[in-house]
Amino acid sequence: MGVEEGIAIYLTIWWTTLFAILPLGSRSHAEEGIPVPGGGDPSSPVNPNLKKKFFTTTWLAAILFAILWAVLHFNLITLPSLPGSH
After folding, report:
1. Mean pLDDT to the nearest integer, 61-72
2. 83 in a domain, yes or no?
3. What is the chain's mean pLDDT, rounded?
4. d(CA 6, CA 13)
């Protein structure tokens, strides 16, 4: 796995992890019984904690990428080569 492939794979893992983490711990205005300010959507989160979720996503994606790298580096699973790649 080259640097470019590694970056692309890490970013894919990061985005997938972000979408898995975003709904965790979120409570909507409707669930809290709080009126929505400015006519917003009642299902919008009261406090989304985005900074905390971005940090959690980053370290979790790094751990998952490290596991994937180790599996590929030590040939525990081999991936087929793409046509044209050497």
Report:
1. 94
2. no
3. 88
4. 10
pLDDT confidence bin for 43, thresholds 50/70/90 = confident
| pLDDT at residue 20 tops 70 | yes
Q: How many domains does the chain have?
A: 1
- Please tell me the distance from the alpha carbon of residue 46 to that of residue 42, in angstroms, as a whole number: 9
- What is the three-class DSSP state of 36? coil
Distance between CA atoms of residues 80 and 7, nearest Å: 19
Does some domain include residue 79? no
List of residues 6+ apart from 69 with CB closer than 8 A: 1, 6
Q: Are 26 and 45 in contact (CB under 8 A)?
A: yes
